[in-house]
Amino acid sequence: MRIGVPGYAHPLLAAAEWAELTRPGIPLDWVVLTVANGPGDRPDPHCLAAAGRLVNAGVRVLGRVDLAGGARPLGEVVADADRYAQWYRVGGFLLDRCPADPAALEAVRLAVTAVRTVAEGAGTRAVGGCGRRRTGSGAWAGPGSTGRAAGTGNPDAYVVLGHGRHPHPAYADLADQLVTFSGPWADYRWSQAAQWTADHPPERFAHFVHGVPRTHLEEAARIARWQGAATVFFTDRPGGDPAGFGTTPPAAAGVSEASGGHSGAFESLPGYWDEFVSQIGPGVSE
């Protein structure tokens, strides 16, 4: 099992959280970057620096793109993905608040294809005057350093669909990973995996759970293993009102927390971070 970080608060508000992610030995799968409920309208130097440190440490950084339950036009989705790719050189995308019903399959397929095309076509260039770019090895360099040839991008962009619940099984054919649970411990402890998930390896699924008591951390890890989810994030922080990854509540788009997104509980470190890392890390008995 490995840790997927759904999206900490802005680095100015969560400096300790972002710094902790570069500590050696943290079993990270990926970390979501969100600037202003998305990429924002201009490069943010603090987010640029935080993303750069993670990339240099070998961590996959994903840009958070809101699908709003399928309500956002494809052009807006592509524009968000392009800003992430050009400004922050992300290694992929979390398509958050992703619909789960079969009627939306084709629309989501188009969105996944579009963001992967954006990532592949993203050129290496100085980012909005901030003077940093990523080198061919994946490291970030300052002005005057040699990066990849202009016009090259990331042909292997990693795409995660943030359903927050089990979607129609055909969604598994569209992306690298699906978030099949996002919600409170009170629901998670009694949850069941959809039968079709047994046809796929655990690396295809992620679970995000808030309000997990310290005394139930081991139980939460066992549930994830039983249900076949290899990427997790558990926190003792309470959920409160669902707030997506920024300031726009999912309810504003007619989408509940169970349809993707997450509460503000995921924007800070769990109170038992070291225990969580130990529970998830290498050497833990399966």
TrEMBL record:
Lineage: superkingdom: Bacteria
Compositional bias ranges of the Low complexity kind: 244-254
Alphabetical list of InterPro entries matching this protein: Spherulin4
Region (Disordered): 240-259
Entries under Pfam families matching the protein: Spherulin4
Cross-referenced PANTHER family: 4-LIKE CELL SURFACE PROTEIN, PUTATIVE (AFU_ORTHOLOGUE AFUA_4G14080)-RELATED (PTHR35040:SF9), PTHR35040
Protein name: Phage tail protein
Organism for this UniProt entry: Streptomyces tsukubensis (strain DSM 42081 / NBRC 108919 / NRRL 18488 / 9993)
